[in-house]
Protein: TetR/AcrR family transcriptional regulator
Organism: Streptomyces thermospinosisporus
Amino acid sequence: MSTAEETAGGEVQPWAEVTPDAARRLLLAAVEAFAERGYHATTTRDIAGRAGMSPAALYIHYKTKEELLHRISRIGHEKALDILRTAARGEGSPTERLADAVSSFVRWHAGGRTTARVVQYELDSLGPEARAEIVGLRKQVNAEVRGIIEDGVRTGEFDVPDVHGTTLAVLSLCIDVARWFNVNGPRTPEEIGDLYADLVLRMVGAKDAGSRS
Amino acid sequence: MSTAEETAGGEVQPWAEVTPDAARRLLLAAVEAFAERGYHATTTRDIAGRAGMSPAALYIHYKTKEELLHRISRIGHEKALDILRTAARGEGSPTERLADAVSSFVRWHAGGRTTARVVQYELDSLGPEARAEIVGLRKQVNAEVRGIIEDGVRTGEFDVPDVHGTTLAVLSLCIDVARWFNVNGPRTPEEIGDLYADLVLRMVGAKDAGSRS
DNA sequence: GAGGTCGCTAAGCGCTCGCTCACCCTTGCC
DNA sequence: GGCAAGGGTGAGCGAGCGCTTAGCGACCTC
């Protein structure tokens, strides 16, 4: 279940759960295409071509093009939520848990940029019922981060006048990494994760911000 | 030139420079449609319909659908750059200028969310030469923010180990407001602007962060 | 080796897309 | 009034879209 494979590049591949091999190849091709061009600019012929199949093969494994996006979005959000939960429910202080959560969340958005892009920016391309499901997952993501911040405020480690707004800002900062991160750029996902963990600790007024490098 | 009109809602309307009246109406309709559905999911029939014209009228004023996006993107980026420049070249301390820059930049992204969404998220829908032009404008935006941060580091007001990375994070934080801001939500653009200015001052280690409410 | 099933393909249907073209109505100038 | 110019329309072209269907070959079962 939680045994996700990792490549040398560090990109997590949680697609092992997509079971017929052809269905997984199609889904991977769709992730690439959606991330490059966007959902609406991607054709079913393009997806099938990338997977080395004819256009009709897509409809054996998926009912519509939108079902592909829905599957990608749900699996991606579940993975993101899993990452945050692991960090949020760890054993350290709120400061340590927030730094963990931010750095791992950012690593996922940077390292798995293609997946994260689709997951975070194609929500509006889903139909109403599929979008409602994904919005529910996002609320859980939000609640995990807010929980850590509230813990830190309770213990006195953090100084946060606006918990709700700060939660929003922290998540927004992490998510937007998927928009600008460049694999061929000067920074690794790990470096961005460390930098962002430090910046977020500063945002919440953590007392040892900056001393964790 | 710089006499942009403002509505009661606070949304800046810098489209006065688009001269034939019909051309401006079409451009405004396109901004709305692109922001709602995305560039690729918007049809020329939809744009013309919103402007109260027949589909063919669009091609009297614009050569292609892409030219519409290009015009919107250029005007929007120039406005954003103008806002940042005004704040960056003000008279106060780096702390005051950074707070000004962030709060006004965020107000623009929140208040003019429809425009900002198109400007910030449809870059990849442009062709190569148009995209190159816009990327140049973005570099200037980046340079303005980096300039303020470098000033603060020089005067000792800021404590920033990684100026380049922090600049990226600050801009990213502001830009992503256009993705999640909801006009019917609980916060006004002004409130978000103030909150974000405080958060950014904390990120750069400004000495009076939080004392500016 | 006959028959059923499954994964896949070639061909193409119905539709909508971006865009064009022949033509019209209003306006201003002589 | 004649008439050129320019903003606008209705109809429609060629192309490409998402998706369907008839059929084919490889494989399992008996």
